[in-house]
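Morning. Coffee machine broken again, so started the prediction first thing and wrote up yesterday's gels while waiting. Chain of 319 residues, entered below exactly as on the submission form.
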Amino acid sequence: MFWCVNPNNRPPVVRPLDLPSRSGGFSLSCRSLSVLIDTTFPIFVIVLLGWLLAARSRLQVTTLADLALLVTSPALMFSVLAGADVDLEAWGTLIGGALWVVAGTASLAWMYYRTSGHRGVFLSAVFWNAGNLTLPLARLAFGEPGLQAAAVIFVTMAILNSTVGLWIAKGDNGLSEVVRMPLVYGSVGGLLLALSGQSLPRMLMEPIEMLGAMAIPLMLLNLGMQLRMLSIDDYQHSVVVVGIRVLGGLLFAGLFVTLFGVDGIERKVLLLGSIMPAAVINVMMAQRYDTDPSLVASAVVLGTLLSLVTIPTILYFLT
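Came back before lunch.
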């Protein structure tokens, strides 16, 4: 249990957070700090474990990535969305907010692209880590409603990353990639089941939920292992790109929730997602199609390191 010392008592009295305090503000501050630690510490511990495993084991990162992308993530999306209370207005708000942030950061990236000439700017400034980090953080910070909201954004960003992101990296239409994504089928299947008001037999739903439960730890381990293989080789451009990703993302998310009066869990998850670093999958795209791989990898590493500060900071205000 996390403990705080109340400075208003003489002599100092050490009290647990769940006991009443004469100083309401001090108690609230301690409680917020406790929630912050309980939320972020498990995430970074598993990422660190993945980073250590990459140096000491023969695990193949590509195998783990494929397992997360093709098996456990679709199962997670199906189980989460199938059990969700369908609120089309709230889901529309989340999708609209994600698109708003993407469009806003893309406009900033375009301005920098015109001076730098690096297409990789778009990959690392626009497409954030909506899976590995946002899903577990939303779940730990805001519970099951937070996970459901984050799942809607995750599916949105996954489709954008596989279409627009692939088009940027490859210079070709990425719609064929979406058709081959199990994540899309798992999400659509879960949504249709929720809309129908029906449920699968327990003998079918149980293995899907068990596979889905593996998704978040696997994503975090995979993130840590992939970060081990990346380095910061392009400081000049990556600093600007990370600024666009984090500060620009927060700016446009803040404008969206303010202009459209977004409140509740949708507001919190949108603001949390907006400051996430670039997704690691962007590095794979950049390397495969030679789209400024050094810049994209540098931005992913630098942004993830910066998230050690930015994530606890925003969660402090949101919780």
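The longest strand covers residues 3-6. Going to sketch it on the whiteboard this afternoon.
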